[in-house]
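$ run holo --ligand "pyridoxal-5'-phosphate" --emit tokens
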Amino acid sequence: MDIPFIDLRTQYQQIKEELNRALNRTLDRGDFILGKEVRLFEEEFARYCRTKFAVGVNSGTDALFLGLLSLGVGKSDEVIVPAFTFIATALAVSFIGARVVFVDIDEDTYNINVEKIERAVTKRTKVILPVHLFGQPADMKSILNIAKKYNLKVIEDCAQSHGAEYKFKVQSSKLKVQKVGSLGDIGCFSFYPTKNLGAFGDGGMILMNKKEVYKKLLMLRDCGRKSKYEHKILGYNSRLDTIQAAVLRVKLKHLDKWNRLRRKKAKLYSELLKDTDVIIPKEKDYGTHIYHIYAIRVKNRNKVLGILKKKGINVLIHYPIPLHLQKVYKNLGYKRGDFPVAEKVSGEIISLSIHPHLEEEKIQYIVDTLKQALLKK
Ligand SMILES: Cc1ncc(COP(=O)(O)O)c(C=O)c1O
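-- output --
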């Protein structure tokens, strides 16, 4: 059996009519730059995540970069970032010239370890930048408390967590549920095609509740414009493409259903793997994991990878090298041993295929093969 890691073609086939109608409508209208579809998608996405404002941009990386700029982060500032994430989280900080300060991750959730954040705070710290990695919310209550204590901003990297929810305990039994991206000062999303909400190319979104930040971001993403040829601030060209917005408006209507299906597939994997040596994802009661990635850990990864490959099973590794050991960050002076959990996890982790259209017999085949691989000495 040949099992690809991701299957975007089935998704397209299932909603082809809706998508084609939306694309034709946009092509007929011809408003290709910041057209009606962008405005409507911004409104709909803000409503979905329950924030006041949304600004569509060119990518998740730009969402982070422009989001940091909009909060006034500059060269003399420090930004706290988990040592284990996709590199764009840190690159956005470095592109501004601010200093990335890495913090180790929690071994259960792979998200930033909130116990270790305070140690990394200095006089220069301006922002904590948690990532809701693989689709599981970071421990936002603790992060927001630390931010309040030290007067820091919080930017959420939601590139892998569209629709994931965080549950605050308000009274002993009552919960206040919020979508990720609405918890910090700014929420940043990527619509890279393989994401839970993916475009047909690059795309990103920034969410916020403050009007002045919103107004600044409208200019930052569009050449610093106040009007067509009036440029008020140093801006950039990072507009969400109108065609992508039309696609995303259609897909947003399916997101909750797709996330439920992902959770169902994850539950099946976890059930089938529960009595093995494989470390399966651990869900925290404060969040709803939407399984952008179903990550497992094994001790003898190379051998397991070889056997899965031989049996036609495509897997990926998110991520094989923690960020503090990446060449690009050599100048920061970190060394092996600085973030032991990130280092251990990056040596053991494997992402198994998960998407809303993955058939149960394929999950069974992947698990059976994995079990055989674990038995081989
Ligand atoms: C955690 C995280 N942050 C940021 C990004 C950057 O998003 P993009 O690829 O849209 O620039 C990604 C996407 O791959 C991501 O996974």
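-- notes --
The domain at 8-103+111-249 is CATH 3.40.640.10 (Aspartate Aminotransferase; domain 2).
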